[in-house]
Amino acid sequence: MKYIIVGLGNFGSSLGMALTSQGHEVIAIDSNMQKVEAYKEVISHTVCMDATDEYTVTGLPIIDTDIVVVAIGEDQGANVMATALFKTLKARRLISRSINPLHQKVLQAIGVDDLILPEKEAADRWAKRLSLRYFVDSFELTDHFSIVELSIPNTLIGKTVDDLQLKQKFNIRLLSTMRYEYYEDSFGRTQRKPSIEGLAEPEQVLQDKDVLIIYGANKHINQFLRSVGVKIQ
User: Fold this and answer.
1) Could you tell me the pTM of the whole model?
2) I need a surface site. Which of 62, 102, 210, 222 has the fewest CB within 10 A?
3) What stretches of 113-159 show up as alpha helix (H) in DSSP?
4) Which residue range or ranges hold the RCK N-terminal domain (predicted)?
């Protein structure tokens, strides 16, 4: 996949390096040449430019980019201006860093697809979330074990929990399933909240739009994902 990351602070640089190490193409931009030079060997492409300048930003391959992440954290004004500019230029999926509740509301009003709260969420977690097609979220219990949320792959729709044989084949467990309920926020924009279905039962039939909550060793979860056709770097 191809990403544009705006801002090479601690979060933006960590995210750029994590995605690059997973084999993705990353264009990281910053107005500080020292930062651009510092990361040119560990991020696919680094470019020195002002992300609030429409003339220079239009030269980026925005149409061919899967996800744009505005990671500017120190300057809220620049963050908002850059986010609005990429929204105007029709970024396919636009994610922006939120600094505080008011800033979050402004970004929601602009129409971002997702918000990052980097003080609470690690860059490597977002790298995983952005790079897997079916990945929704995760909670790492240790360096080797996680609880992950996965949008149900098409090949599993209509199967029962028992059909999957997750414990026998992969040594992982399906803890539960959930669905997202959608509602309109105070800006009239669609938001979502999770609805947990309860503990997974062997006879439960998996349905379209289910989100699977799986526990196990990371290597075993990856084996399961590969078995259902999910590509993993």
Assistant:
1) 0.59
2) 102
3) 123-131
4) 1-116
